[in-house]
Amino acid sequence: MNFNGDEDYSRNHDGMAQFLNLYITEDSLNTYIKEIKDLSVLTAVLEVKSRLISQEKHALISFPIETILNEVSSLRIDEVCLVLRLALVIQSNNLQYEILLDYINKNCIDINDSSSLECVLKLFQVAINLCDLKSRRKVFDKFAATNQFQKVICSLLTVESRNIINFITVHILPFYLKGNCFGSSYILNFIWENTQKSKDLSMLCSLSQFFLPWNTSSSCILCLVNLDEFWFLLQDCLTNSNSIIQKQALYLLNQALYAVKDEEDFTTETKIIAWNRKCKVKTQIAMQNLCILFDISREKQLHLIEPSYQLLPTTKILHSSWLMCIYKILLAHSHNAVSSFAICDIFKSNQFEDVNTFKMIIQYLLPVLNKVEFTDRKEIWNGFYQFNERLNSEQITLLLEQSIKVTWIPSICYQFYSNLLHCISKRNYQSDNLFSIIENITTGFEKLPHKFIRRGCIDLIVEFVERQLSCNKFDFNNYKIINQILKRCNRNNLHILLQNKISEYDLSSEKLLEKLCNSKNACTEEIEIVFEIIKLVPNLHEAMFKLFIERKFNLKIADRVCMILYEHKQYRKPLFPYIIKRLNNLCTDDDGIIIDLFKLFILTNDDETEMKSLSENCMKILFVDRSNSFEVHIAFEIVNTLLEQNKCSNIVLDKIDDILSLWKEKFLKGIKNSSANICVLFLYLYCNKEFFKSSFSAAEQQKLITSEKVLDIITLFEKIMDTESNIVVPIIFDNLKYLFNLCDDVEDVLNFVDICVNKLLEIRRTDQFKNAIENFIQSMFSNSKVSDNNEAVINKCTIIAWHILEFAKTSDDAAYSLAKHLRCLFDINPRVIIKFVPIIVELLLFGDILKKDQRAEYIICQKIDTDEGRIVNENNPNFRRLSVRGQAIVIINNTLNLLLEDEKTKIVDKMISLLIEKYNVHFNRRYFAHSKIHMQKLRILQAILTVHNYVKSQKQALIDLLIDSLCTESHQVSVKFFIQWILIGLLCYDNQSLSIIRSKVESTSKVHSSTIIAFVPILYHIALWRNDEEFWMNLFEIMLPWTMGAHFNLRLYAQEGIKKLYEVAYQTNLSLITKTFQDSVDCITKVLDRTERKIDVIDQYVFNDFNAVDNYCLVMIYYYIPKFTNVTLDEYENFLNIPEFVNDCKGEIISNIEPYLNSYTQISVKSSEDDLLTNLIQKKITPWMESFKSENSNKKIGSLVVVASLINKTPNLGGLSRTCEIFGVKQLVISSLNIIKDHEFQSVSMSSENWVDISEIKIDNLQSYLLEMKQKGYVVVGAEQTSDSVTLNTFQFPKECVLLLGNEKEGIPPNLLTLIDFCVEIPQFGVVRSLNVHVAAATFIWEYTKQHVA
């Protein structure tokens, strides 16, 4: 180690100076200096000359430096700088100093090459360092002024090279500015302006002493603390996402506060920082706490941040912008608990009365609130409601406007607006643009991807609009917007809203009718409202009729007038000619009102002549090729309506076959320009005719259609599905059942079914899929052939059911429809269930585990029905999902009640066999609460429990499986409960039950105490069903040793079981038991009385009130026990909305379990694991370095330099020394070599300091040292967490590397972060904040060593 290198060097040169002074004259030495060409020799001689001058033995000389400057190059620049410094020190005048400055000026301006520029800057550093003499200072100032060098420096500060900027900042500017050289103010202003633009605080941190007045003797030139812009910049950077910028800003904030701490009165223009004598202490404490919050809030671990929450209230006396900053940081925190705290605190706060501040906090708040994790946080939404209650009208408007800009996730959207709109309605809030805002909110609702929540949100809007209208006066303009909102919400209740307000409207019949006469467009909001008003005012109808007769209205207005008037009998006859005329005068731009008019005409008219006239006109349209598509559409609509109302004339009935033949040919040929609606209407008419569904005699409806006709229909259906819009698919599938019902031979229909399945695959991601698959399943499972036990159709249905289950993987609707229609099938034909057992098993286990966003949506779907006062039904996707299992359960339950015993046993054995297979898939697989395996096991066991009473051939296999599962697997509470229940049911009448359990437990290796505990309730309940004293004696002999076992829980449960059994024995007069075990039970009772810990609530229920037989009902199996055992809500909640489950409920059973449910607030869900027995022996190992050959034993692994100058704890440095020695680190850098002599250091270092190259670099010199190492080709790596840091396991260390370690508390300071090439962090998976700095350093060093080991 070079402990005394500088002293030796000094001593050697002093000796040489003495020698030369004795034997060489001054003139000879001066002459020799001027003749030397070799820089290394010149350096040594100039050192001697300098010594002699300092000893006043030689005088200064005049020595030209041109030859030295000629040697300038990137390779020799450090050597040149050293020689120049020595050469200029011994000069007798400033001429050579001026030559150096001229050289710098000439080369600095024209250089574009960064390496050459670095050379010039190093020369400039030499020039600045030699400004100590007044004469040189004058020369330098003159040079700087003449050449405007301050501008040159500023231009250099804008180059892209970070190394150049760092060099100027560290080596040049501190000396330049400290001497207050010419242009210093200009440079500082430039840096400040540039910092404001770039938000890069690096230079401010490095040169902070020139911007902030640290003390009275400070060299501060440009004081920033009085500038509002400075504090606002810090706020901006404190909330920056870049952690380096955050750290720099916090450093400057602390420095700035320190700089002004002694001021009695201090304020900026905007009072962003302000105090007077009275509040100085309180304000400074608040600012200090604010700095702590800024620092702590960057931590990731919750246990570090939570204690700092108590500091937040103290900061609320500060300018609101500081509070905004800390809220912004907390809201953006990665941990949701921190964001949640910030949200709740904002909702409680009264700090945001200023409009701009309120708008800003809302902009920060809403995107953070829009997280799925906050869906069911009651404290947030309760706080939000109270927050809304305190807002004024302007703030509510701002909140509504800002909410429109958020792309809400469905669950949060409903929570947000249900609270906000309800609160607004309650306060009778009014605003000029309220309904315009509501319209924009409605636009956002229309984009929500979840249909049910979207509908719930739209219901909120409608309810809100209705409430607002009931409270506000009639405003025509508002009603125009409201009408648009209601139409977008698919609501047609504007007339109801108007009815309550019509009295407030200044009615003027002339003005209203004038609006109609003058309007050219019938679809404007204004005209629609006028029509709604007219409907409510019958007095206007007569005047309107006169205008109608006089043809004062345009065609579309007239259609609507006709609709209103036709509701009244007195106008119908005069209006008939208009209707017939309109049929012959249809336009392509006619809207749906004309269709409604024709339907109204048919529904309200019984005149056969008029019906005949209308029918004949339709026939003409349908027979004429020149008819436009809208005319055809209207004609088909009218004909279909006539058929539905049985008002078709015989002429029309006679011509229908011709019409259908004509249009059938068109569709088979691939008709062009036909709309989807025409095809749909044609299919309705075609199917009505072919399948005798309406307007045909009962005799016709009983006819079977021929095979040729079936093929004809199928060909048409195929062609239409291939060529027309998918909108026709549900209609074709709906009519598939009629094909089955009326055909004689099903083979062709079954072939068509395969085509239908392929079509379902094709449209599975379209809007038509839901209706299509519903109609398809209904047609397959509800046709007469299935009811009649047609084997071919039933076999096809089983195949189709498997296809549908594939669809069900992405569509709950498919599974729901299948389960619903299977139930209908089995209600009619229960014996067919044997073919569908595998399908039923799949349905019993149906449903994926809900993901985070799905769970949130589940909660909101339930809330929507609750808020609207509805019982959850099939419209709710949650109900539909759970109903798949519910329907399957009801199918099994109902079907088994209808079958004979042998049939039941056959079906149940097949089911149990399949369920055992399913269970074995997950056997001995570790699982967690609410995981997929957990839910699958639970559902399998529930299904087994539902049918276990009928199992026969699979009984022993089931018993063996469940006992093995208890003995070898770790179970969630719910799974264990159902295993116990099933085993009780299977073994309670088995004479060998005790020996079966005993032998299984004894034969299982490593039986854990929890396994035995699980058997205690089973044995207890089996005993309750056995009035056999011999059985009881054997049971007591088995259980008594457990009461004294080593495991506390086993003792507790065994004691409880023995005590309960004894009580039953006493009540049932089992005298042998009571006499034999009385003393033992007395002792056990005393022990239990003194034991504070009791068995779990659920086990209390098992021992006290549970009955395996009496408790057997669907609602207990599928609702109460899952609820009791802390299963997720979506797994059981909606079973109570299925009537069969509620009807199967036994009141006394529920009354027994409910007290336990009330006291059972939470069950700790744990996965018990087998004890791990390890035989780990600590031993000393031979260092792996010894595996190398002896000649490499002293070889360093690489060129790793570890810089630990920032570390201040001696034991950490001692340990680091030891680590560096073991892994062959090239050099260890510390802040003081005196630490090595410390006893605390040596007790940890284990003499490693004797073998490690340790050098000293003070903290103040670290900037220069790191720059110097970078110039030597080293890459600087910082052990620091930043937003840009890379993980250690992915980082490739360069061979020549400087590892910079941070301070134990503060880490790496901001002024050094800009010098780091790479920030690297150790991946962390635990809760603790970070590693000890020595441990972290050892991890880095080992990773480097692994990568570069020879």
Automatic annotation (TrEMBL):
It catalyses: guanosine(18) in tRNA + S-adenosyl-L-methionine = 2'-O-methylguanosine(18) in tRNA + S-adenosyl-L-homocysteine + H(+). This is tRNA (guanosine(18)-2'-O)-methyltransferase TARBP1. S-adenosyl-L-methionine-dependent 2'-O-ribose methyltransferase that catalyzes the formation of 2'-O-methylguanosine at position 18 (Gm18) in a subset of tRNA. Selectively mediates Gm18 methylation of tRNAGln-TTG/CTG and tRNASer-TGA/GCT. Gm18 modification can enhance the stability of modified tRNAs. The lineage of its organism: Eukaryota, Metazoa, Ecdysozoa, Arthropoda, Hexapoda. Coiled coil: none annotated. Keywords: Acetylation, Methyltransferase, RNA-binding, S-adenosyl-L-methionine, Transferase. GO terms for biological process: tRNA methylation. It comes from the Eukaryota. InterPro entries: Alpha/beta_knot_MTases, SpoU_MeTrfase, TRM3/TARBP1, Trm3/TARBP1_C, tRNA_m1G_MTases_N. Residues 1200-1341 form the tRNA/rRNA methyltransferase SpoU type domain. One of its GO terms (molecular function) is RNA binding. Belongs to the class IV-like SAM-binding methyltransferase superfamily. RNA methyltransferase TrmH family. It is an enzyme of class 2 (transferase). Its EC number is 2.1.1.34. PANTHER family: METHYLTRANSFERASE TARBP1-RELATED (PTHR12029:SF11), RNA METHYLTRANSFERASE (PTHR12029). Transmembrane segments: none annotated.
